[in-house]
Design brief:
Strand order of the largest sheet: 1-2-3-6-7
Strand content: 25-35%
Number of strands: 7
Order of helices and strands: HEEEEEEEHH
Number of domains: 1
Distance between the termini: 42 Å
Number of helices: 3
Bound molecules: zinc ion
Radius of gyration: 15 Å
CATH class: Alpha Beta
Shape: globular
CATH superfamily: Peptide deformylase
Helix content: 10-25%
Oligomer: single chain
CATH topology: Peptide Deformylase
Largest sheet: 5 strands, antiparallel
CATH architecture: Alpha-Beta Complex
Length: 157
């Protein structure tokens, strides 16, 4: 296990599409372990493989209720809409307001290649969308709604 370097938004790799994982082997497991260590070290709630320079559809997420390893994740259902503050380990020191679904259901394979379904609301739903966007070369900064402030959101709640 090792901490990997997180690439930042100047790096063009973040704009590339990640490839589907076909082999569920030891190389994948090492990547997952390293990504987990890197995410916790950086105090993030999610990390996509492209952020450590690997163009594979692999994501780790932990919003405080346990680690999820998501391979080839796909959104299968969403509902609602919520605007909240979002940041990214690849865009250090910045944050912005982004509209995301309030509820998201996804399917993904685990480290053994078994398909499973996961669902989340609020931060977890936001995290699923943010990380899956990374796999398609999309950064949250592409989606920032500049004219909504954190105070506006607080007042709407
Ligand atoms: Zn990110």
């Amino acid at each position: 296990m090792a901490i990997r370097k997180v690439v930042t938004s100047e790096d063009p790799i973040l704009r590339k599409h990640s490839r589907k994982v076909e082999k569920f082997d030891e190389r994948l497991w090492v990547l997952l372990d390293d990504m987990k260590d890197t995410m916790y070290k950086q105090e993030g709630v999610g990390l996509a493989a492209v952020q450590v320079g690997i163009l594979k559809r692999v994501v780790v997420v932990d919003v405080g209720d346990g680690l999820l390893e998501l391979i080839n994740p796909e959104i299968i259902e969403t509902s609602g809409e919520v605007c909240d503050v979002e940041g990214c380990l690849s865009v250090p020191g910045e944050s912005g307001n982004v509209i995301r679904p309030e509820y998201v259901k996804i399917k993904a394979q685990n480290r053994d290649g078994v398909w499973r379904r996961y669902e989340g609301t609020g931060l977890k739903a936001r995290c699923f969308c943010h990380e899956i966007d990374h796999l398609d070369g999309i950064l949250y900064t592409d989606k920032v709604v500049k004219d909504i402030t954190a105070d506006d959101i607080k007042n709407n709640k």
